[in-house]
């Protein structure tokens, strides 16, 4: 069936409207875990199909990451292992280096953001720019200074500060999971939709998820912790009225930690 030019124009105009509104990806109604990659079966198929070679690379890169991450028994060793990893495509996209973590690696709270930005890339530490300073202020006001360790779903700055792709997050995930395993935090704070997607493997909207406790449980190692998704502090720089919601989520975090520490 041929579409009428009028219909095509209407669809184009609707797509342009969505793009202007920041909608840059289409999802199915049911959540799809794109990080699982159906590894062994896909690997076999892709070996025979040259056109989908990147998936094979991704499977190999993820297993390299897992191998490196599992070899690290301290957070310091894990940061070094991540810095030696070359399997994330972001490594060759202009980032100066690996930005792994900041704070006390024995802290009871693990904070996970999206990806390093320009200032983090220059400093080699996460959340040192404007958004990070705002986050630090909120953490301090909640009495949590010194009780957090901060990292990201990927450790290299994406070009143009774009959102990391699910594939980039998936190859870095073994390092994030190992950090979770080594720290065994009492609670985790996820900053923004991309962090929630990367860690909780969900396409649910951040507005719906924020303010609600979820559970993050590792498949191996029997490690779990309550997880609070909230809005990204960079969003608050443009939408200061949303600070109220993030503040409420951070207070929830402080209360949860208090409860866990006094349990
Ligand atoms: N935004 C993030 O998500 N992470 C950083 O480290 C800095 C800004």
From TrEMBL:
One MF term in the entry's GO annotations: metal ion binding
Pfam families per record: UDG
Catalytic activity, reaction form: Hydrolyzes single-stranded DNA or mismatched double-stranded DNA and polynucleotides, releasing free uracil
The UniProt record lists the keyword Metal-binding: yes
SUPFAM superfamilies registered for this protein in UniProt: Uracil-DNA glycosylase-like (SSF52141)
Keyword Nucleotide-binding: no
GO biological process: DNA repair
EC code(s) of this entry: 3.2.2.27
InterPro entries hit by this protein: UDG_Type-4/5, Ura-DNA_glyco_family4, Uracil-DNA_glycosylase-like, Uracil-DNA_glycosylase-like_sf
Protein keywords: 4Fe-4S, DNA damage, DNA repair, Hydrolase, Iron, Iron-sulfur, Metal-binding
Residue ranges of every copy of the Uracil-DNA glycosylase-like domain listed in the record: 100-251
Similarity field: Belongs to the uracil-DNA glycosylase (UDG) superfamily. Type 4 (UDGa) family.
Protein name per the record: Type-4 uracil-DNA glycosylase
Organism, as annotated: Brevundimonas subvibrioides
């Amino acid at each position: 069936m041929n579409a009428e030019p009028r219909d095509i124009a209407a669809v184009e105009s609707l797509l342009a409207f969505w793009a202007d509104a920041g909608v840059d990806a289409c999802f199915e109604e049911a959540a799809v875990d794109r990080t699982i990659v159906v590894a062994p079966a896909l690997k076999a198929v892709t070996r025979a199909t040259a056109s989908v070679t990147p998936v094979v690379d991704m499977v190999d890169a993820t297993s390299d990451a897992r191998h490196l991450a599992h070899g690290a028994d301290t957070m310091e060793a894990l940061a070094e292992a991540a810095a030696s990893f070359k399997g994330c495509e972001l490594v060759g996209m202009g980032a100066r280096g690996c930005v792994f973590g900041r704070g006390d690696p024995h802290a009871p709270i693990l904070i996970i953001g999206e990806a390093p930005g320009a200032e983090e890339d220059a400093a080699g530490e996460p959340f040192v720019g404007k958004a990070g300073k705002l986050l630090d202020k909120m953490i301090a006001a909640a009495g949590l200074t010194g009780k957090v360790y901060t990292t990201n779903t990927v450790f290299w700055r994406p070009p143009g500060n774009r959102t990391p792709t699910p594939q980039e997050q998936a190859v870095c995930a073994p390092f994030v999971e190992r950090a979770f395993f080594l720290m065994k935090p009492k609670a985790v704070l996820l900053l923004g939709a991309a962090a929630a997607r990367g860690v909780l493997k969900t396409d649910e909207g951040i507005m719906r998820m924020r303010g609600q406790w979820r559970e993050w449980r590792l498949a191996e190692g029997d490690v779990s912790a309550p997880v609070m998704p909230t809005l990204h502090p960079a969003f608050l720089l443009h939408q200061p009225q949303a600070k109220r919601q993030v503040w409420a989520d951070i207070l929830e975090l402080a209360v949860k930690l208090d409860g866990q520490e006094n349990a």
